[in-house]
Amino acid sequence: MTPDLLEAGAVKRQQYQAKVEASNSSGGRAAAFGRVLTPGLPDFAHGVALYLDEVTVSFDGFKALNSLSLTINLGELRCIIGPNGAGKTTMMDVITGKTRPDKGSVTYGQNIDLLRLRENEIAGIGIGRKFQKPTVFEQLTVFENLELAQQADRSPRASLWSRLSGAQLDQIAEILTLIHLLGAAQIQAGLLSHGQKQWLEIGMLLMQSPTLLLLDEPVAGMTDEETERTAELFLSLEGKHSLVVVEHDMAFVDQLTQGCKQVTVLHEGSVLAEGLLSEVQANERVVEVYLGR
Ligand SMILES: Nc1ncnc2c1ncn2[C@@H]1O[C@H](COP(=O)(O)OP(=O)(O)OP(=O)(O)O)[C@@H](O)[C@H]1O
Ligand SMILES: [Mg+2]
Question: Which architecture characterizes domain 3-33+76-86+126-291 according to CATH?
């Protein structure tokens, strides 16, 4: 732990609590990182992190998801591809409680019915979500963003009186290293590049040690180098977390799957194909609806 990290850890919470409130990020953001009491602990004994069974979502009669079934195993890195409008983001909306399906079930582990939980409860039992646009607190430093994401209790009282423990500082340092921002810990998040902001947001999600991470087009707008580093980051997370990565960038998907992982192709709200990237790329129906556009 470097001295300036320690110093940053001692920053009075009330100083940046005010900044958080003035920050340009959405009000629900801090809440989404918050831990909440939940009805029970997820049971992962069977190695399944998430199970969607025949999930249907209709918008004015249009089926954005059409009897979608999908299983994500514990520690698995699963790439999901599909043309615009295939239902990829809607699927994440359903898993995180933002959208309620008309039909079907969504089970976390083998026992938690996610359809019965609210968005903040779902975030609190280990499901983190990264939206396409980075949503970090621009006026806070990188360190402060991670510190805030780490706090279980964000009430003003807790913010005023709590001090970071050695273990908490170690966790922040570990995540800073992982997301390539150790040297930028004291920089205001608003000054980071687009790619660095994306990494910071991923780091903020990791502070909560999520079991399942949902990442919607995480490398959109990144440089080639940033994209490659992001793939390395995700590969290093594989096994420790389940990752569901929605992406259009096939070179990135190729790097993530390393020629040996299953890719899921969504089309019109259902699974069109599943297999190695090379297999789905050679699948005529996939070529027709997606790759051949
Ligand atoms: N709130 C909504 N109201 C009405 N229609 C919606 C709503 N959300 C999504 N849709 C429609 O549902 C379909 C699936 O959208 P979704 O955003 O899930 O697709 P996607 O696979 O994420 O596409 P993209 O690759 O462009 O991000 C689209 O036709 C979209 O217009
Ligand atoms: Mg989308």
Answer: 3-Layer(aba) Sandwich (3.40)
